[in-house]
Design goal:
The complex is a heterodimer of chains A (282) and B (233).
Chain A lengths: L1 H13 L1 H37 L2 E6 L5 H12 L4 E7 L1 H11 L15 E6 L6 H12 L4 E5 L2 H43 L1 H9 L4 H37 L8 H29 L1
Antiparallel strand pairs in A: 1-3, 1-4, 2-3
Chain B lengths: L1 E10 L3 E11 L4 E5 L6 H8 L7 E6 L2 E2 L8 H5 L2 E5 L10 H11 L4 H14 L15 H12 L6 E5 L7 H16 L3 E5 L3 H7 L2 E6 L2 E5 H14 L1
Parallel strand pairs in B: 3-8, 3-9, 6-7, 7-8
Antiparallel strand pairs in B: 1-2, 1-4, 4-5, 9-10
């Protein structure tokens, strides 16, 4: 194993240009993927924020006693899909309306708007079917006059989210596929550059496993370095966008580590594939 | 020690390279393999070395059959053989001693044993003073000596030399040939493919001549035939 590490590190010293080229190619392939990831992350973040605004508003019949309303509030809050359920009095409703709509600013009486129970759902329960089902259950209470949740808006939002997810998956897989092909070709070049060494190793009786190991280590190192460089480039790009365009979300530590690990894995698998193919050919 | 039994070898692209080749090389023999280009000499060497497997027939080396050997056991068998090529196949960016040490390292020789063994091998091939030179700093003959030292690193029972003097001048050729004879004298069998008829004529060793993928002459058989004829009379 010590020899395998030595040979892998020697490869960097013996062919510095090719090694730098490999690491840079891996870095830029992953950088392109990283940029796409950033776009996907920010779109998802924005959609999540929009989804957080999905709300069911159940209007309470005028004159309903407080006890019944409060009991219903408890029931509704206990629904598995429900995150929060809050009673909004006519006074609060007017205040909110004044804030949201200028035309209410000259209305002085609170009685113009009914009280309501405002319900927010837990993340993952904002799809049209669930929202509609919860709204239907709330409407079953006698003292509920009407339930509104912007059905059309929820459906549109959900459709946008589905399209974004599908487009994200397709584009993400394409980017990942292109990155794997480019990285694989780069590593294959490195393997071909050392075909003489491979043939000598075979001649003197080295096992295929032994021949493979320095290449696997080399691929792993190149992939990791490429991954780190890609992360750095993505961070730099994100900072520039933040400075000149708008503040965008960046990957959290978990995603950053996953990105570098993906680079390392691609490097390792690319090497394993390339050297395996080469060993079969010669 | 090496036995070819009705060996055929066909390549997908170039067709039949060997047709019904049978011969035997005993321990400690020195055998020339000769014939025009494309006669099948290199294919025979590749089959001995198990770089290729026969399409039909059997090649046996040190009791191991090409028919039954498993892929993972091939490296073990190769460690019993040394191979030398016309183009030396040295690692250009490593010193002479590093080239030989590399062969010992990849076959798992204990690190402490590598240094002394490299020195001994370099002395054996007459290059003790060139240990730290790079291959490009050596003459063709010297590079081939390094390749021979590397081939001897695993104490092989047979040394396979594919046109080892093909790139060398006459003086270097004589030197390399003498080295191979010395190695043979110490008990290692040598199979040497060559075009050099003058060398063959002078050496008076067993010669197998090939043409169009078949053996057209084997001096051992002729000698055996002559001896049999003498016995008959």
């Amino acid at each position: 194993m010590r020899l395998a590490w030595r040979e892998a590190l020697l490869a960097f010293r013996r062919a510095p240009v090719l090694s730098v080229l490999s690491v840079t190619t891996i870095a830029f392939s992953l950088f392109a993927f990283g940029l796409f990831g950033l776009v996907a992350l920010n779109i998802r973040h924005q959609l999540n924020q929009l989804e957080d605004r999905v709300e069911i508003r159940a209007f309470v019949v005028d004159g309903t006693n407080a006890e019944a309303t409060s009991a219903a509030l408890g029931d509704i809050a206990a629904f598995p899909e429900v995150a929060t359920a809050k009673l909004v009095t006519p006074e609060e409703a007017l205040k909110r309306a004044r804030q949201e709509l200028g035309e209410f600013s000259d209305v002085f009486e609170a009685g113009i708007l009914p009280a309501s129970i405002d319900v927010k759902l837990k993340p993952g329960f904002n799809d049209p079917a669930t929202v509609s089902a919860v709204a239907g259950r709330i409407k079953n209470y006698d003292f509920i006059d009407d339930v509104r949740f912007g059905e059309e808006w929820v459906q549109k939002l959900y459709r946008i989210r589905n399209i974004a997810t599908l487009a994200g998956a397709v584009l993400g897989l394409t980017f990942a596929g292109v990155a794997v092909i480019i990285i694989g070709s780069t590593i294959r070049m490195a393997v071909l550059a050392r075909s003489r060494e491979i043939s000598i190793m075979r001649v003197v009786g080295a096992t295929d496993g032994f021949i493979r190991s320095p290449f696997l280590i080399e691929g792993l190192l190149k992939g990791t370095l490429g991954g780190l460089l890609a992360l750095l480039l993505t961070y730099f790009a994100n900072s520039l966008i933040g400075k000149f365009v708008f503040t965008a979300e960046f990957f959290d530590a978990k995603y950053a580590v996953a990105g570098v690990a993906a680079g390392a894995l691609i490097g390792l698998l690319g090497s394993a594939f390339s050297v395996g193919r080469h060993l079969k050919e010669v | 020690m090496i036995r070819f039994t009705h060996v055929f070898k066909e390549f997908a692209r170039t067709g039949l390279a060997l047709q019904d080749v049978s011969f035997h090389v005993g321990k400690g023999e020195f055998v020339f393999l000769t014939g025009p280009s494309g006669a099948g000499k290199s294919t025979v060497l590749k089959l001995i070395f198990l770089e290729e497997r026969p399409t039909k027939g059997e090649v046996k080396v040190s009791g191991v059959s090409s028919v039954t050997i498993r892929g993972r056991d091939v490296p073990k068998l190769r460690r019993k053989m040394g191979v030398v090529f016309q183009d030396f196949r040295l690692l250009e960016d490593r010193t002479v001693e590093a080239n030989i040490a590399f062969a010992l390292e990849v076959t798992g020789t204990a690190p402490a044993a590598i240094g002394p063994k490299v020195s001994r091998l370099l002395s054996q091939v007459g290059l003790a003073s060139k240990a730290t030179s790079l291959p490009r700093e050596l003459s063709g003959g010297e590079q081939q000596r390094v390749a021979i030292a590397r081939a001897l690193s695993n104490d092989p029972v047979v040394l396979i030399a594919d046109e080892p003097t093909g790139n060398l001048d006459e003086r270097a050729t004589r030197g390399i040939f003498q080295l191979l004879r010395d190695i043979n004298a110490s008990g290692t069998a040598v199979i040497m493919a060559t075009h050099d008829l003058e060398l063959i004529r002078r050496a008076e060793c067993r010669t197998i001549e090939m043409n169009h993928g078949t053996i057209v002459f084997d001096s051992a058989e002729q000698a055996g035939g002559a001896m049999r004829a003498e016995d008959d009379s």
